[in-house]
Amino acid sequence: MQIVQEVEATGGNVGASASREQMVYSYDTLKAYIPQAVEVLLDSVRNPLFIQDEVDRQLALTREEVQEVQKNPEKFLQEVLNLVGYEGAIANPLIAPEEALEIINADIIRKFYH
Predict the structure, then answer these.
(1) What family does the entry list (predicted)?
(2) Are 3 and 25 in contact (CB under 8 A)?
């Protein structure tokens, strides 16, 4: 939250998104603040903090996404077709299995990252 507030204080905007094949961090800012923007992006990628409260919020959102996919035949079919149509890492589901969500915490993510 502190990073977002500092960025917004300079008129900037940060964002992140993920898909099956990529993860994107973005930072919109005025030209004068580009050095700070690069520093924030690099620090976010190289030295992330995995705070349990934030992990819990993301897990709650992920659980909602899992339920949404299960209720939406088009999204569910896309996931199933991906599982049978590809091999290797790209065949992994985009949405985590519910049983995996029960054991994920900040420590596990930190260990995986490092």
Answers:
(1) Belongs to the peptidase M16 family.
(2) no
**Nearest C-alpha neighbor of 32 from the set 1, 2, 57, 10:** 10
State both tokens at 51: 């705070």
- pTM for this structure? 0.73
Length of the chain: 114
**What digits encode the pLDDT tens for the residues 25-38?**
888 999 999 998 89
3-state helix, strand, coil in the chain (%, to 5): 65, 10, 25
The domain spans of the chain are 1-47, 52-113
How many angstroms separate the CA atoms of 42 and 34, rounded?
Answer: 12
